[in-house]
């Protein structure tokens, strides 16, 4: 989402770092460019003014100019100010510290992803917090919304309040809370109706539902792709309803990102969760410091490690480690690795979490990194015989043609897979020889193909 802004800011700060020594005028000029970059990214004007004033106060002066690396010092000041603008250190999760059933009211405009987000939160609370969740649709304007929520509840494995024809939103809310109490549910999620735009009828209905349900959490769901409109929506709902937190959907899209950067400053409410895909489990905590680091090209290794830990099969990883030690790593093992990487999501997004990779975006784009590559490579390996998977060296021209035909790809892709497998095998052998101390001493450079560093 923040690619454009990240590129602009990266260019500005690169110029500062290259200058070595800075003057106050250098810093002021750089901040002028930062201001323009934020405005072009759709960040609200009052937020930009406040942000730049705060950074200027700290960045202009003797302490920065005379520091060992003034350019890097300015970047740190910008980073810290951005973290504060986004909400400060640490993620703010959904608050369940209330007597059961805890009512969560979902509000937002039609098309913001509110109903899907309700299903995602239900799955998250069931799986991570081990809560019994009841979903209830209060959208009497769109019968399809009620059916959509029923299907989402079925997929998430949570209960959904039965539909009673003719009931209004307020009556459904009261029935949902009562049903949750009687059936021993821990949480009841109320999915309210949306409109195409903010209007009096919508606000009055949501207020009435809130009075009846007395929600412990009122979450405003906002489509991050809508730019300044998202900020205006958040402001209106917060003034009318008093939201406790914000969920930004479609954070994996290609919008300019201004809504995310403006939301906390405009409403004073934390961004609690972000939707990062269509799948039911594509919902993540919002970490201000990690988002700021990614925007400024510092990467987000913590999120990458957490994502890996959530999908990697520990027993499978140990099995592969043993095979590596014995030198028996084969294409079947390679396919197993591909499958685990595929579970982590879009490869370009994962690469973007690595520090410094922002400057390689053009090359990564040309490399056409996507999960489709993983599926095709898995299909190629699936078209091989067990003997070919165990001994890739026997795969010659005629076998390559047969494998390509069986997997629906060209022979060139088979060749590419075999070369990649050779590179991965060579790198893993180097890792095994180096050991932990060797890796610490030699770094990633020691693993690269063609490296002549003695082991």
Short recap of the structure:
With 455 residues, the chain is of the alpha/beta class.
Task: Looking at this protein, list some descriptive labels.
455 residues, alpha/beta, Four Helix Bundle (Hemerythrin (Met), subunit A), Rossmann fold, 434 Repressor (Amino-terminal Domain), 3 domains, eight-stranded mixed beta sheet, 8 strands, 59% helix, flat, disordered C terminus
Task: Report on this structure.
The longest helix is centred in the last third of the chain and has 32 residues, at 411-442. Helix 3 (45-59) runs antiparallel to helix 5. The chain is α/β, with parallel strands linked by helices and 455 residues long. It is flat, with a radius of gyration of 26 Å. An 8-stranded mixed sheet has the order 3-2-4-1-5-6-7-8, with helices on both faces. Residues 299-305, 353-360 and 436-455 have low confidence and may be disordered. It has helices at residues 3-19, 24-40, 45-59, 62-65, 70-86, 114-128, 143-156, 169-183, 200-213, 228-241, 258-267, 288-295, 301-311, 314-326, 331-342, 347-351, 361-366, 371-382, 386-390, 397-407, 411-442; strands spanning 102-107, 133-137, 159-160, 187-191, 217-223, 245-249, 271-275, 283-285. The protein folds into 3 domains: 3-86, SRP54, nucleotide-binding domain (Four Helix Bundle (Hemerythrin (Met), subunit A), Up-down Bundle), CATH 1.20.120.140; 102-296, P-loop containing nucleotide triphosphate hydrolases (Rossmann fold, 3-Layer(aba) Sandwich); 304-447, Signal recognition particle, SRP54 subunit, M-domain (434 Repressor (Amino-terminal Domain)). It has 21 helices and 8 strands.
